[in-house]
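User: I'm curious whether this sequence folds into something compact or stays loose and floppy. Could you predict its structure so I can see for myself?
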Amino acid sequence: MVEKTPFLVKIYELLTDTDRFAGLIEQIILFSIRAIIAVLVFLAFRKIIDILMKKYEQLDKKDSNKSLHTFSRSILRLTLNFVAIMIALLIIGVKQTAFVGLLGGAGLGIGLALKDTLANFAGGVILIIFKAYEIGDFIEIDGQSGSVHEINVFATTLNTIDNKRILVPNGLATSHQIINYTKNKMRRVDLLFGISYNDDFKKAIKILTEIAESHPQISQKIDKTIRLRELADSSVNITFRVWCKSEDYWGVYYDIMESAKLRFDEDGISIPFPQMDVHMHNPEEEIVPNN
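Assistant: Here's the prediction. I'll summarize afterward.
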């Protein structure tokens, strides 16, 4: 049976053994120097990385894909930081074989812990390869909509209409429906106008046709659809479908709404609103007097 030596006895033996104590002090000093050098080297690498990223930002991107540029920029920064950490660990004294073994042993745990992060990275690669959207596109993902500001390694940033910044994980983007409103050059404006049953619907169609033909941003090369759609409960509904450039969509939408209301008012065409007739019932009136 091995006899256990008390901890304080071991300390005393170490302090009284001059050679062992000197060796320990030497190791501590050497490790401290390496640690200081490693920190300084890491900080120097961070400065170099910042300079390189600024140089990368100054590259001419007019003829390049902006989405690919932002994605590659984030990958480059991540890779350079990883290299800086490895160099710092090697300076401290971590052996390459030990470092590789540590990464291999921790690989499974890291993979499980960072499965969502890895899914986001894979999603970013898919988005870049298949070009589901690019910088500047107006999109909607899982109910969140806005113009694409950046596509990074793990997430896509959107700017909403009211200038809010939304961060959407790339994994969420690839696992949900993506609606891209600006990918195609042309977009159809769909409107529905309801007029009174007492008004002339042919006259209303003529007014809407004149508005569509006179608007400079509405395409006159693509067929328009301005027809009677349905006889609803309280109105005669007219379908209004025209085409315009994607970037002109909202301008055309609001112009048509305003022009239609002004022209309908000028020509005496009314836009009905829901009404309810209330009949008061008096139960006493139904009482039949006894003869």
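Summary: Strands lie at 138-141, 144-151, 155-159, 165-169, 178-180, 186-195, 225-231, 236-245. The radius of gyration is 36 Å.
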